[in-house]
Amino acid sequence: QVRLVESGGGLVQPGGSLRLSCLASGSIFSIGAMEWYRQAPGKQREMVARRTSDGYTNYYYANSVKGRFDISTVKDNAGITIYLQMSSLKPEDTGVYYCAIESTQGPFWGQGTQVTVWS
Fold it and tell me: Distance (Å, rounded) from C-alpha 110 to C-alpha 31?
């Protein structure tokens, strides 16, 4: 059974940094991409970072986070960990952050972790 579990969210002041982690366990075949989304209160969920894994490694960042956020991945015996390093955080970065994996088995989602940027 595939499971994605996020961690690392919390309360941070503007200008601060956080690193989110997403541990993906279980057997996932033919991964196309690994992604981070966020959903701010009253808004639709939006993709903030994406790393493709379908033979070519490409990166995508939403304009609002470009230069401040960085997606990376590590694979080990525990599974695949997807990181989102967030720097120079702004109040508008507040929201629930979700990791996701696209694969031939379908999309997999984590349960989300809250990030609040507040002074």
Answer: 16
